[in-house]
Structures are given as structure tokens and as C-alpha cells.
């Protein structure tokens, strides 16, 4: 693999990791809101945050899978 292709694929992996970390940060923020709701209950907001948490968790899983798949491509490209 030429250096330009290597650099391009490496940048993509870093961007994917950044996206995954951003999603994890969103989950942490949602968890803070859910925790705050123990002191100031709001059933509608709690439901919305639980749904958002579920979706964000699913996004992290999808992104993790995409990273794994891309890493396989990256490793194969390095070997050729």
C-alpha cells in the first residue's frame, strides 16, 4: 500500500474513533440528566432520555462494528 492510501485509511480510523468517543460522551451526559431526574422527577423527560440512551448505545455498537470492519480492510491493504 502506498503511503497516501495508508495515511487516508489511518485518518478514517481516527475519525471513526472520534465519532465513537463522541457518542460515549453523549451517553454520559444523558446519564447525568437521568440521575438529576431522581431529584426532580419528570416522567416524560425520563422516557425521552431512556430512549435517547438506548439509541446512543446502539450507535456506539454500530460504530464499533464499522471500526472493526474497516480495521480488517486496513490490515489487508497493508499486506498487499
TrEMBL record:
Keywords: Coiled coil. It comes from the Bacteria. Residues 46-80 form a coiled coil. This is Uncharacterized protein. It comes from Aequorivita aurantiaca. The lineage of its organism: Bacteria, Pseudomonadati, Bacteroidota, Flavobacteriia, Flavobacteriales.
Amino acid at each position: 500500500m502506498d503511503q497516501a492510501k495508508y495515511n487516508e485509511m489511518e485518518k478514517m480510523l481516527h475519525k471513526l474513533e472520534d465519532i465513537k468517543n463522541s457518542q460515549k460522551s453523549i451517553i454520559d451526559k444523558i446519564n447525568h440528566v437521568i440521575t438529576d431526574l431522581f431529584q426532580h422527577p419528570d416522567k416524560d423527560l425520563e422516557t425521552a432520555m431512556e430512549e435517547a440512551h438506548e439509541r446512543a448505545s446502539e450507535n456506539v455498537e454500530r460504530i464499533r462494528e464499522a471500526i472493526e470492519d474497516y480495521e480488517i480492510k486496513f490490515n489487508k491493504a497493508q499486506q498487499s
